[in-house]
Amino acid sequence: MNQLRKIVVAVSLAACAGMVPVQAQQQAPRQDQATVQDGIQLRPMPRYRMLASEERIEAQSKAQYAQMMQQAAQKGALAPSDHPQVIRLRNIARRIIPHTTRWNPAASKWDWQVNLIGSQQINAFCMPGGRIGFFSGILTQLKLTDDEAAAIMGHEIAHALREHGREQMVKSTATNVGARLGGAVLAAVLGIDPGITDTVAQYGAQFASLKFSRDDEREADLIGLDIAARAGYDPRAGIVLWQKMAQASKGSPPEFLSTHPGGANRIRQMQEHMDVLLPLYARAKGTTTRSLPPYRSVSIR
Predict the structure, then answer these.
(1) DSSP of 130-155, one letter per residue?
(2) Above 60 in pLDDT, residue 210?
């Protein structure tokens, strides 16, 4: 019975030990004044992301993207430059890219690339350095309008602009190391199998990392719509996009077990910021918010 009690105590303490390094990192940047861009309030970019070498990440990104495109080409899945959807995506990117430097001045020097891979996956990405990839499934299965494709592209670009990948690398490393050290110390103090505390601490670290990922997703939603709206794409498309996503992803895991916030939460956040985003879009279109026509999409049903 005493042994069981020790295990229960270890479970609680080890989980906390796995989360302490991450929480400390999370709270430190929040002590600074939040960054505000035309009313969009964001977390400051944490200084600890500098612990991951920018040069190393850039080299890895460049190599991985090149390898992915090469493999797609070998399989006949890389769409050629004259493909209508490639032309469409690159035109959207040309309009969005000039507005990226307001979030990260280094973007002016990025080697921007946009490619389309033939796959039924409903997905897209932007690697560090502006290397963008869309899977054809996200365009065809969701029947995206240009505004909705711009919302997705803006979202993925925002991850790169805010260096979320670089930040996540540091957080994951610190969390895993802290979790294992905490588990080992608790095992020695309580005199129980270190494998138990290590496993529990890893679960604590995993949940902490998931929370950070959801924060990054929420931030990318707003920045993505910001740069898309400035480029003349309707930010209301973001709301419709996530309604379509909800239809297409029935049976997905609940929000607390996902790296992505639930669709309802994302939609609510976007709606709360329309008073900031719509004026940007109206200005790009040379009109006023009152004169904007209703947003029109294409149903996926």
Answers:
(1) TEEEEEHHHHHHTT--HHHHHHHHHH
(2) no
